[in-house]
Structures are given as structure tokens and as C-alpha cells.
Write a structure and sequence with these properties.
- The protein is an alpha+beta fold.
- The protein folds into two domains: 37 residues; 82 residues, Alpha-Beta Plaits.
- It is 41% helix and 29% strand.
- The chain contains four helices and four strands.
- A four-stranded antiparallel beta sheet has the order 2-3-1-4, covered by helices on one side.
- A hairpin with a 4-residue loop joins strand 2 and strand 3.
């Protein structure tokens, strides 16, 4: 098993505006390098993924999503996904944050695996900036 001290080099491509925003945060938080900030972001992503893996059983929750309204075919893809999961979607609220960016809040109820599947399908599309699933267990 590789130790965290065993470093591997990777190359990534990012839009300039995303990298600029990332650099601002790194500077504000006092990171010594982009590499350390990226390592921290990856650790956070892994922790979130593990937390999502534990979402099981009947749950009530909310999915918050921010996306680019002008991304080609994204609105129709989101609508198709929401129709596919209509049995667990109880309500949704859509807000136009700017001309390009939208915030959507989706109230969900169902089996944790279905809620995760819905969130993961939404987050897999180009133009979706963020998706966050927050749930609570339904106690008998």
C-alpha cells in the first residue's frame, strides 16, 4: 500500500476562471502551494464519497444543485433524470442566480441507494457545478 509520502505527478486541464477562483481560496486559506490545496480537495472528495456510501435505508433528504443554464442540452438532461426519478422526488425549487447560473433544490424521499443514484446522475453532466445530497434516516 502506497504511503501518502509516495508522490505521483499528474497533469490536469482547468478553465482559467476555475483555476483563478481556486488560487484565490488557496491564498485566503494560506496554502503553501496548489499541490497542497489539490491534495486537500481530493481528501475532502474521498471523505464525501465514503459518507455517501453509507446512505442506506429509507431516508428523507434534499439535493442542492448549481448549474450553467446555458450549457447545451443540460436542461433537457436534468429534466429527463428528474422524470426518471419522479417516484422519489417530492418537490423542487428553481432559482435563477444570474443569467447563466441556476440553483435547484430537490426534496427527496426514498431508499438511500435511489437518492444517491439520482444525485450521482445529476452530478455527472457537463455544466453542473455542484451537487450535494443531504439526508436523514426515517426512524420508525
Amino acid at each position: 500500500m502506497a504511503m501518502e509520502d509516495d508522490l505521483s505527478r499528474i497533469g490536469i486541464s482547468l478553465p482559467k476562471n476555475l483555476l483563478d477562483r481556486f488560487d484565490e481560496i488557496l491564498n485566503y486559506r494560506g496554502y503553501s502551494s496548489r499541490s497542497e490545496g489539490i491534495r486537500d480537495a481530493i481528501r475532502t472528495y474521498i471523505t464525501y464519497y465514503k459518507w455517501m456510501s453509507d446512505v442506506k435505508g429509507e431516508r428523507e433528504g434534499v439535493i442542492t444543485m448549481v448549474y450553467d443554464h446555458e450549457q447545451r442540452n443540460l436542461l433537457s438532461a436534468i429534466t429527463e433524470i428528474e422524470h426518471e426519478y419522479h417516484g422519489i422526488i417530492k418537490a423542487s425549487l428553481h432559482s435563477h442566480v444570474t443569467h447563466e447560473r441556476c440553483l435547484e433544490v430537490i426534496l427527496v424521499h426514498g431508499d438511500g441507494s435511489q437518492l444517491k443514484a439520482l444525485a450521482e446522475k445529476l452530478m455527472s453532466h457537463k455544466g453542473v457545478e455542484s451537487v450535494k445530497l443531504t439526508t436523514i434516516a426515517i426512524e420508525s
